[in-house]
Design goal:
heterodimer; A: about 55 residues; alpha+beta; globular; B: about 400 residues; alpha/beta; FAD/NAD(P)-binding domain; D-Amino Acid Oxidase, Chain A, domain 2; 3 domains; eight-stranded mixed beta sheet; about 35% helix
């Protein structure tokens, strides 16, 4: 299990990057990269997203 | 020998002012930004008050100061409003993209080097006076060394984290923001900022209209960061629902979509580390009450530059040597913002009825007096006390926050 980004909804604002407690998320150019090994499924990124572009799967 | 004495990461208002001041003082300065264009995408409602222009010695240029503001109108959930309006100009709604490009040009004129689409992907402290940054430009990886890094790289601030300063925010200290720049809209005074409150409208936040002249405006929302998971509605859904209910807005066109998060609180105990200073959103330099941060960020960048210049001259870069930065920032701005954080906590507890009550009980005449600053501190206190005395719930709430 890890957070997943929906590129169709995402506006690449970096909010999820800012709240991630384990720095599992990076924003490269216009791509959100989630390190599944680091992700602890806390859901902070899901909660903060203004457009519901993050989910836990 | 380092490549640059200071590398500023992030070419927003904080980074550009810092870079500009550093270069002006003769410091060999590089400003990097991972984005491809200065000022884009904007994550901002673009209002800047006149006080900031004066404090920062910033020229009012028609190129980016596009709409003068004469005050604000605050709307309660039942549609009542309080207006604060003055004859003289209180500030401007900016075209931030233009403003930032002008700041960038000034920084380069002062002698700074600026590179876009250069992303910091690694940072290592080689020794007490040297940091090596690993930078990606498209597929190319390159390395620059410097004495000091000033991280102005937004709310995520990965650079600070790479160098050992944890700037992570709690969900309670962050607002989720969403905004449209709309055109073809009507029904509001273009000389005022318009703020809409209420639990249904924008829980733990507000909706704004910041006019950008000619039927065009930033129409946005900020809500508490933990709201969406409680109400199952995200910031976009709150804003869309509200716009659909506004006759003057619902048929407008959208020329830009912006999203972002606003660090409204959670001020950092230390805004410096070994060879590192943090400014702007990266250092959570935002007013906790209204979420504005352009002026605060630029001031932070300026103070950071001042301390970096001192450090370079004295060749002292440790977190203890750089302590003066955090101290000066708190004395200049931080302590005041901390007080405003308390005010925010109070506002967060207001219910729709309280907003309605306050809007109804303060008459337009009284609001104008408050807005014109024609009341003394004592008169204001008497006025508010009179309003509060008939609503005991508000007094209890107020007592809780008056320590």
């Amino acid at each position: 299990m890890a957070a997943k980004n929906n590129p169709n909804k995402c506006l690449y604002c970096g909010g999820c990057v800012g709240v991630c407690p384990v720095q599992a998320i990076t924003l490269n150019d216009t791509k959100i990269v989630i390190d599944k090994n680091k992700c602890i499924n806390c859901g902070a990124c899901v909660k903060i997203c203004s457009v519901s572009a993050m989910e836990l799967e | 020998m380092v490549d640059y004495e200071v590398i500023v990461v992030g070419a927003g208002p904080a980074g550009l002012i810092a870079g500009s001041d550093l270069a002006k003082a003769g410091i060999k300065t590089l400003i990097l930004d991972k984005k491809q264009e200065i000022g884009c995408p904007k994550r901002c409602a673009e209002g800047l008050s006149m006080n900031w222009f004066k404090r920062l010695n910033l020229e009012v240029k028609p190129s980016f100061c596009i709409q003068p503001m004469h005050g604000a109108q605050l709307y309660s959930p039942n549609g009542k409003s309080i207006m604060f309006k003055k004859e003289e100009c209180q500030g401007y709604v900016l075209e931030r993209k233009t403003m930032e490009k002008e700041l960038a040009i000034q920084a380069v004129k002062n002698g700074a080097k600026l590179l876009m689409k250069n992303q910091v992907i690694g940072a290592t402290r080689l020794n007490e006076s040297e940091i090596k940054l690993e930078i990606r430009e498209n597929d190319e990886i390159k390395y620059y060394t410097c004495n000091i890094v000033i991280a102005c790289d937004a709310v995520d601030s990965l650079t600070s984290k790479m160098l050992g300063l944890n700037t992570k925010l709690d969900l309670r200290e962050i607002d989720a923001g969403y905004q449209y720049e709309m055109t073809g809209i009507t029904g509001y005074d273009e000389n005022l900022l318009h703020l809409y409150f209420g639990i249904e409208v924008a829980p733990r936040g507000y909706i704004w209209i910041f006019p950008k002249r000619d039927g065009t405006a930033n129409v946005g929302i900020g809500i508490g960061g933990y709201i969406s998971s409680e109400t199952k509605m995200n910031a976009k859904q709150y804003l869309d629902r509200w716009i659909a209910s506004q006759p003057g807005l619902k048929d407008g066109s959208i020329i830009e979509v912006n999203a972002g998060t606003i660090p409204v609180g959670g001020f950092l105990e230390a805004m410096q580390f070994d060879n590192l200073l943090v400014a702007g959103d990266a250092g959570h330099m935002v007013d906790p009450v209204h979420g504005g941060g352009i002026g605060i960020a630029m001031e932070g960048g300026r103070i950071a530059a001042k301390h970096a210049i001192k450090a370079i001259k004295e060749k002292k870069y440790s977190k203890t040597d750089l302590e003066g930065y955090t101290k000066e920032w708190y004395e200049t701005r931080g302590n005041e913002l901390k007080k405003r954080l308390t005010a925010r906590h109070l506002l967060e507890e207001l219910k729709d009825d309280d907003f309605n009550y306050l809007a109804e009980s303060i008459s337009m005449d009284e609001a104008l007096k408050i807005g014109n600053n024609s009341l003394s501190g004592l008169e204001k206190t008497i006025l508010f006390t009179k309003k509060l005395i008939t609503r005991p719930g508000l007094i209890t709430l107020l007592m809780k926050y008056m320590k």
